[in-house]
Amino acid sequence: MIKLEELRGHWALVTGASGGIGAEFARELARHGVNVVLVGRREERLQELAQRVRQEAGVHAEVVRVDLARPGAVAHVKERLDAVGIRIRLLCNIAGMGRWNRLEHWELKDYRDMIEVNNSAMVEMCYHFLPDLASHASSAVINVSSQASYQPVPYMAVYAASKAFVQSFSQALHGEWKERGILVQTLVPGPTDTEFDAKAGAYASALATRGTTAEVVKASLAGLAKGDPVVASIKGTYKQRFFAGLFPHSMVIREVAKMFKPPQ
Asked: Measuring CA to CA, which of 8, 40, 79, 153 is 20 to 30 A from 208?
């Protein structure tokens, strides 16, 4: 477990920091005196956020503009931080992308980029920053999963599969790193009011209610203080796991497909 007070004056790295849950993490950490490295693609937004937290919270903030779908992106981030002597104590892998609709609706490149961002970059971040994390008496990693990880999701097939990878990898890594003083948290947000759905090509579905980014971040940081390996910011995940695990596969696939089928 690791409390926010312990992180004061140390560095956190937040991917996907130019908006949504990532930006909320950066703001909340800064409010508690944590220095932040903001990683994302939209440099103007990153610079604005960095300036804001410097002025309002009095913390240090560094910006690394990078596309995590590109080869070598994570190594570039590590090299940049090593060059200025920044060691990360909290690693927040928040960046992610998704696509709604039938598989053939999107270009193959979209799915390759999704797997790179959701999976490969997350693994590389953990791998490259392990020496930083292990250099502290206690440290933490937050990897963002999804409710979609609990069962196959027709019309979001690649996204759901990528988040099932996050779920399995992160919990396994929790088991590996716990004895080293590194807490690996799997964060499972519910549907959240961000730009994600618009970018993913979302359409009207059974998921009508959206929570706030503040609720997600609050749940995550409270989970760090308790040492929880998995934190869900929405109720009902137990029922979802029960449904996916005990009912026939054909029934699970059919019922979930009804929720996400694109309009005719």
From this structure: 40
What's the pLDDT tens digit per position in 145-183? 998 898 899 999 999 999 999 999 999 999 999 999 999
Superfamily of domain 4-260: NAD(P)-binding Rossmann-like Domain (3.40.50.720)
Catalytic pick among 111, 150, 155, 159 = 159
159 is catalytic: yes
CA torsion, points 141, 147, 152, 158, in degrees to nearest 10?
A: -60
Q: Considering Cα of 129, then 186, then 152, then 258, what sign does the dihedral take?
A: negative
Domain ranges of the chain: 4-260
**Paired strand residues for 63:** 38
Across residues 6-19, what is the average pLDDT? 97
Check pLDDT > 70 for residue 121.
Answer: yes
Q: Residue type at 87?
A: R
Nearest to 15 by CA among 45, 48, 31, 38: 38
pTM for the model: 0.91
Q: How far apart are CA 17 and CA 40, in angstroms?
A: 6
